[in-house]
Amino acid sequence: MKATFARRHTSPEGLLALLVLALAMSPARAHVQAGEAAGFFSGFRHPVSGLDHVLAMVSVGLWGAQLGAPAVWLLPVVFPMVMAFGGFLGLAGVPLPGVEIAIALSAVLLGLAVAKEARPPLAVAAVLVGFFAIFHGHAHGTELPTGQSGLLYSIGFVVATGCLHLSGIAIGLVHRWPWGRVALRVAGTLVAIAGFGFLWRAIR
Amino acid sequence: MRTRVPPAGTLAFFAALLISARADAHLVTTGLGPVYDGIGHLLLTPEDLVPILALALYAGLRGARAGRLALFVLPLSWMLGGLLALGLGGAISAPVPALSFILIGLLVAIDVRLPDGAVATLAGSLGLIHGFLNGPALAGAGPGALGLLGIAAVAFVLVALASALVVSLKAPAARIAVRVAGSWIAAIGLLLLGWTLRTRGV
């Protein structure tokens, strides 16, 4: 029955006409504004696209795990908020000198803090993390591509940053075992060495 | 036997279906009526959705009574704000979504201990302002007051689910996770505020 219907109502010419019309259609943008999906994914990709940012943010999580509560959750809370403030400054066009040097220094110092398992007062650790977060955020803010959805970009950006911290905390859970403490200190040393490399590149 | 070519009317019908014109309206059109359009609008608009969830998290952190107050005050004030916008027209030029994200996100992150009345006032203010912002999209060819009903219904359900979940959390780590979510929301708001300022050339 279906075959009969198809034979009766279709023809090569008709199918060709439909195909041409289908190819000629334009997208319907009823709700989603142009660039919104790209905004989320480019925001998510941004923090993980640079090794200097990745190492610094994972180190924040590692250090928090070494320090234990309340630093384990306070530092990852401080970093995104202060980083967003830095991003706000960058977006608003407020200049900040020495951004690349400060980002490289953040990898050096945070790596050393993990390597030495440093235990400063909580306020000092929070201020150190917050200080460097401003520079990380500023770099991201000034590099924000045009033509993106600001909100979805921001959501992707913050979620990716938080995921990097959570990754650091998850890795840092090995701190409960003796071999894990050694592994974390080795990882911190490697981050610091990479930080020196970034610093050399920034001041060269 | 050779089959006949589809009539011109059939081709024209398919052409009308396939060559879609751009509809740049703000509200999503579900095809299921204005109530569902309102539901779809809220679920697909993070500018409205995230502040509602943030308020629900905060009300949940403040306890069951605050959660119950927010549950009823927010949808009602949202409807009131939307009706005002439909009746009066006009728009708000301030970067409301960004400020909502920052304010409520910070309240959640810091776990500020406001009294229940203040939580209700916060819910009422949020609903009024965001409802008013929905006005231009609801008016004209939009779903109108019935769309507001859909928005308010979804807001009611979201606040009920999210605040009840937070009220039920007893483990300190779980409450800390809620506060971390608040810090993320505040961070998003800060970036959005910077984006808005840059877009406006301030």
Largest sheet of chain A: none
Tell me the series of helices and strands of chain A, N- to C-terminal.
HHHHHHHHH
Number of domains of chain A: 1
What portion of residues of chain B belong to β-strands? under 5%
Work out the largest interface and the residue count of each chain. A-B, 48 and 48 residues
Roughly how many Å is the radius of gyration of chain B?
A: 21 Å
User: SSE order of chain B in H/E notation?
Assistant: HHHHHHHH
Shape of chain B: globular
Helix content of chain B: over 70%
Q: What do the pLDDT scores of chain B average to?
A: 82
Distance between the termini of chain B: 72 Å
Q: List how many beta strands of chain B DSSP finds.
A: 0
- Assign a percent range to the helix content of chain A: over 70%
User: What separation lies between the terminal Cα atoms of chain A?
Assistant: 78 Å
Low-confidence runs of chain B: 1-5, 9-25
Note the quaternary state here.
Answer: heterodimer
Helix count of chain B equals: 8
Mean pLDDT of chain A: 79
Cα-atom Rg of chain A, whole angstroms? 25 Å
